[in-house]
Amino acid sequence: xxxxxxxxxxxxxxxxxxxxxxxxxxxxxxxxxxxxxxxxxxxxxxxxxxxxxxxxxxxxxxxxxxxxxxxxxxxxxxxxxxxxxxxxxxxxxxxxxxxxxxxxxxxxxxxxxxxxxxxxxxxxxxxxxxxxxxxxxxxxxxxxxxxxxxxxxxxxxxxxxxxxxxxxxxxxxxxxxxxxxxxxxxxxxxxxxxxxxxxxxxxxxxxxxxxxxxxxxxxxxxxxxxxxxxxxxxxxxxxxxxxxxxxxxxxxxxxxxxxxxxxxxxxxxxxxxxxxxxxxxxxxxxxxxxxxxxxxxxxxxxxxxxxxxxxxxxxxxxxxxxxxxxxxxxxxxxxxxxxxxxxxxxxxxxxxxxxxxxxxxxxxxxxxxxxxxxxxxxxxxxxxxxxxxxxxxxxxxxxxxxxxxxxxxxxxxxxxxxxxxxxxxxxxxxxxxxxxxxxxxxxxxxxxxxxxxxxxxxxxxxxxxxxxxxxxxxxxxxxxxxxxxxxxxxxxxxxxxxxxxxxxxxxxxxxxxxxxxxxxxxxxxxxxxxxxxxxxxxxxxxxxxxxxxxxxxxxxxxxxxxxxxxxxxxxxxxxxxxxxxxxxxxxxxxxxxxxxxxxxxxxxxxxxxxxxxxxxxxxxxxxxxxxxxxxxxxxxxx
Length: 638
Prior knowledge:
seven-stranded mixed β-sheet, alpha/beta, 2 domains, six-stranded mixed β-sheet, Rossmann fold, Nitrilase/N-carbamoyl-D-aminoacid amidohydrolase, 20 strands, elongated
């Protein structure tokens, strides 16, 4: 439960229709299993105490009396269970029968939530027995001296975890145009539970999955869907026990179907509230709900959910290819518009033979093709310096030739040596001045060539470099349009690989494959035995770690302690705890210290949910301190 993680369960027991005592017994067994698994919110299906398919037996006074008695008995059996539990049963109030979800905790019934929408079409005949539930809670007496609220406008709030606020709806409530869960979320519910008895017909499973997934995304909430399964009467329909757990539009757990399977997942409630905080169009506006408090012991939740080590890159190949095509289109359409607007018919790029400049050139080629402009108006400039290797130099030349751009070679060594002489820099001192002098010379060349040819300098730097400040101020940091400005390094690689796989040109594919195989380097220090001597990831850390940190810092505003925990879980044995800690510390130091570079970035297209543009997603002061973040991170290791 620390860092907002709470384990939840959707549990489908095998019921015996109309045998309430046996059903209570089986539910108790399932409850114990779920509690042993560490579940803190446990949801059973609709009318599970009696069975959903009782039909006209719902008119039998004995069945209804037995259901209430067994509810109270079941509630007492939860006294030592550290969880909030929902069970379904029929309940009589003022001479009318209601289909309700009972919320239980620590031996008590906290409230009864009635089903709002009663289906009476096709195979459903619920209106024959049940009355639509009231919205405003009323008081009802379960037994002498034991009064609870009955009504749909109820929230169950955890006193120990403020982010956990639970509301309930029942089956059909989700399938209508205006589900009660919408009002629940607008009243502050961060978790919606659905007690269901949804029968199975062809195609319904996928539709049900999309309903649950979509509702959790729309409400920025967790959603637990527990459905009736084997044991219900199959007189006319069959129940599969299709259970689902979703969070913010993603399915975290799903039962196989026809198995009465209990499913578990850890919901991240700090993620949910962070999303709601970020989206100013989501607001809690209804304060009239009745709130019942319950308590939970705050402990560490063992994480079993998948934490993607590469959150910017889809796992599935088809989805990844679709994402790559979409991003390349966004980048090229952004550049197309800028070229059209400025009436510029020449683009100038520095091509190093590395990943970033390769992607920028590919995007520029697409933009020119969209505009119907000849590719020879793309001025691709290679500028060999003190650290340039034969491999990257040759890849740059081959790529430019394959793409039909115009090659311009400007050797910067002599100009930089003159500059070093002018400022009194020892050429044998390979310090930051030695490196940045080359970077700024290259930018000067590009800018002046753009003036000469009435062109525009296309920036090549990516978002990961901008986050770390790994760019020379007024060097590669500057351009007239930065097409890679919101593309993280881990995604750059996949975009280039996708282009290679789909270009249909074997020679270009071969060149791009070698670019992908080349270590990331600014090549500002002399080679060693002809090989790259300066590897970026040796200096600032692995980009896959930094991209992971960047995603959770900017997308959800997570604390350092939580990001450290997630990274350890996501990367497993790939990186030691010490390595993750070291580079996370580096990330925070550099991210805060280098904001001044991001505060004056050129324009560039946003392609995903995380970006660092000072005009868009990141309005961060250049002089903010990282002290409290670094202090908490240090505490995570103590």
